[in-house]
TrEMBL record:
GO molecular function: metal ion binding; transferase activity
Family, similarity comment: Belongs to the PyrI family.
Protein name, UniProt field: Aspartate carbamoyltransferase regulatory chain
GO biological process, one term: pyrimidine nucleotide biosynthetic process
Aspartate carbamoyltransferase regulatory subunit N-terminal domain boundaries: 6-98
Functional description taken from the UniProt entry: Involved in allosteric regulation of aspartate carbamoyltransferase.
Signal peptide bounds: none
Every Aspartate carbamoyltransferase regulatory subunit C-terminal domain range: 103-147
Co-factor(s): Zn(2+)
Manner of cofactor binding, per the entry note: Binds 1 zinc ion per subunit.
InterPro entries, sorted: Asp_carbamoyltransf_reg_N, Asp_carbamoylTrfase_reg, Asp_carbamoyltrfase_reg_C, Asp_carbatrfase_reg_C_sf, Asp_carbatrfase_reg_N_sf
NCBIfam families to which the protein is assigned, alphabetical: ATCase_reg (TIGR00240)
One CC-aspect GO term: aspartate carbamoyltransferase complex
Length: 161
């Protein structure tokens, strides 16, 4: 590794989300529900030169693994991302994100009249289309470029009771 590549220090235990589409790091944090208040140690590289994809973002979270819902939503905004599980400084697992048919939770339906926005304990569910996602309850479509604007800041996609 050259000096130029070493921008963010290595972590001991946690998850490195690598090869994130440049400019999407903050949206990755939103998907993970991380805003700093939870006390997690997080390092972010933005627009870091990458030999594979030109420029990329990198998000490193100490002491945290990702849920399947988080990975599914991640696949919408960072389809080339690699999820590295780090244990005792070593890369213990490396997985590419996979495109899924459905994403559950985390995204919020833009339709205020949707059942998922009523005071009901209904988890959001969206069918993944080629160029966006469609609410399974009301058919409202979120276009691909608008997905990031509909991430639930709390990361759950569930209406509070
Ligand atoms: N990493 C880290 N802390 C560690 C080990 C690895 O932050 N203790 C980071 C590396 O900086 C890199 C990612 O995890 O961003 C994957 O590490 P590694 O597989 O060693 O790097 P590459 O071989 O470059 O990965 P790839 O083949 O996926 O590009
Ligand atoms: Zn809806």
């Amino acid at each position: 590794m050259t000096d130029k590549e070493l921008r963010v220090s290595k972590i001991r235990d946690g998850t490195v989300i690598d090869h994130v589409t440049a400019g999407q790091a903050l949206n990755v944090l939103a998907i993970l529900g991380i805003d700093g208040s939870g006390g997690e140690s997080v390092s972010i590289g933005m627009n870091v030169p990458s030999d594979k994809v030109g420029y990329k973002d990198v998000v490193k979270v100490e002491g945290r693994e990702l849920s399947q819902s988080e990975v599914d939503v991640l696949s919408l905004i960072a389809p080339e991302a690699t999820i590295n599980i780090i244990r005792d400084f070593e890369v213990a697992e490396k997985n590419r994100v996979e495109q899924t048919d459905t994403v559950r939770g985390i995204l919020v339906c833009p339709n205020h009249n949707c059942i998922t926005n009523a005071d009901e304990p209904v988890r959001t569910e969206f069918e993944v289309l080629g160029d966006g996602v469609r609410c399974a309850y009301c058919d409202t479509i979120i276009r691909e470029g608008d997905v990031a604007e509909h991430i639930d800041a709390r990361g759950s996609g569930e209406t509070a009771l």
